[in-house]
Specification:
mainly beta, six-stranded mixed sheet, four-stranded antiparallel sheet, globular
Amino acid sequence: EVQLVESGGGLVHPGGSLRLSCAASGFFFSDAGMSWVRQAPGKGLERVSAIDSPDGNTYYAEPVKGRFTISRDNAKNTLYLQMNSLKTEDSAVYYCTLGYYGSNTRGQGIQVTVSS
């Protein structure tokens, strides 16, 4: 059974940083492309970032380029999203998702709130 469990969210002031983690199990993580998507209140899902395997190619949505960094530790079956210079518009539920282009297989989500 595929399991994706996010952690690391919370409340942060504008300009602050957070690092999201996603612990993966139930599939060959090192062979899988992975992505982060988010959903803000009243809005649809937005693909934020992705990392492919095995080449490690990455994707960033325009609003987060230069501020977010996606990475993975295949030895720990863990996906990360380092988020710096956070803005209020980054507030959303963030989901770890199987697949470079995303899929319906995702974690339970974790709240990120950027507010002063």
